[in-house]
Amino acid sequence: MVAYSFWSVDDNYQLIQNGNLDQYAKVFENPIYLMTLLSSVIMALLTTIFCVILALPLAWFISRSVSARWRVLFIVGLILPGWVSLLIRTYSMSLVLGEEGLLNWSLAVAGVTESPIQILFTKPAVVIGLVNIYLPYTFVPIYAAIEKLDDSILEAAENLGAGVFRRLFKVILPLIMPGIVAGCIITFIPALGEYLVPNLLGGLQGTMYGNLIATAFQGYNWPLGSALSVVLLLAIFGSLFLLSRFADVSRSLLAEQ
Predict the structure, then answer these.
(1) What is the C-alpha separation between 195 and 7, in angstroms, rounded?
(2) Which of these, 64, 66, 91, lies nearest to 77 by C-alpha position?
(3) Which CATH number is 212's domain given?
């Protein structure tokens, strides 16, 4: 793929192995590519944040409030939809987010809105669809980290006068941070390169970078598609580097405390 990104195509879409940076020049000179990449990073980041916000209390509830006898049932119930085809799950979300879908019906019954709101074929629809798909991936490592928490540490913090919020931010979150970081990584990376969800739920407004890559390859411009893919890989590596630096800072702060 890297080699193809330095090639070009002629008017008959035949590959020319000439070795140049023309494809990368197209990527960085055309604002649509970089703007779509930035938009994709934001949507993937929002997806990761919402997944963590939902997964943390859910994992804590299942781990701490549900008896061991029923925990497996809860976890299987969360993971079971992942066995269904991604295409079917994504298409079913269009039935939920449409003008006459379940979401608009619920809002109308609750008296929140008088007329249907346009959610489908927008960026929020893409984020909702991505959260629906990747929440189990975020949940599993966070749940595993919470399961390993030593109750004696939490009891010691409580006995030493630490309130609920102090225990949460000074004890619990630092201890389960590796699980949170792992959940963020396995959610953010595939969400950033997602193609199917924005294609079915986003329309023109919710186009993501993966759709541009697919369009280039479908148009037989393999060098351009390869260059776009390499840029996406570099963006992913850069995001992982920043995330690793954040994790190192968290560990350093924990060590100092």
Answers:
(1) 25
(2) 66
(3) 1.10.3720.10
What residues contact 22, with CB distance under 8 A and at least 6 apart? 8
What is the pLDDT at residue 140? 93
- The three-state secondary structure class of 27 is helix
The answer to whether residue 16 is domain-embedded is: no
Q: Is 9 helix (H, G, I), strand (E, B) or coil?
A: strand
The string of DSSP letters for 67-123 reads -HHHHHHHHHHHHGGGGS-HHHHHHHHHHHHSTTSHHHHHHHHTTS-SS----TTSH
Q: Is residue 9 part of a domain?
A: no
d(CA 11, CA 136): 46
> Measured between alpha carbons, how far is 231 from 169 in angstroms, rounded to an integer?
36
The predicted-structure confidence for 82-136, as pLDDT tens digits, reads as follows 888 989 999 999 889 988 889 889 988 888 888 888 899 999 999 999 999 999 9
- 5 lies in a domain? no
Convert the pLDDT of each residue in 216-227 to its tens digit. Answer: 999 999 999 999
